[in-house]
Amino acid sequence: MGSGLLREEPVALSRLIDLVNERFGTDFTAADQLFFDQIIAAAMKDDALKQAAKANPEDKFALVFGNLLETLFIERMDQNEEIFARYMNDPAFQALVAQWLSDISKDIDEICRRTLTRICGDQALIDQFNASKKDLDDYFLKTSFGADGTQSAEASTLPQTST
After folding, report:
1. What is the radius of gyration, based on Cα positions, of the chain?
2. Is the pTM of this model over 0.85?
3. Which of 33, 52, 55, 64 gives the lowest tally of CB atoms within 10 Å of its CB?
């Protein structure tokens, strides 16, 4: 006797976001894939889950995995909330994260510059990209942090969360 459930074809994890967007009309991006990757990484570290996978047939393991999956989603949400709260409430943490992300954006800018040069060789387009990027960087710095790394008045109007 069947369960009445349709068995899905296995989906590559890298296609999960595409599948979810197609099926549920969502707008998740490649960046959202990181959330699912975090869940997967946590599941793969779980020794009890590994043990259950070895000891149980697929249908019994699916029950164990389903229960753990919900727990992993809640834990990931809590961890992300802790990071958010720390960022919103700790100016020193904000400054460090902003600097780190700024350093990464410089690497990305360099990759974009090289790519634009290689693809089109059009210096005017490269100059336009650099000007747009500088305008965004200046706006972010003016609205987020003062020269001393403290939060500006505009940024301090964002809602604060309690830790």
Report:
1. 22
2. no
3. 55
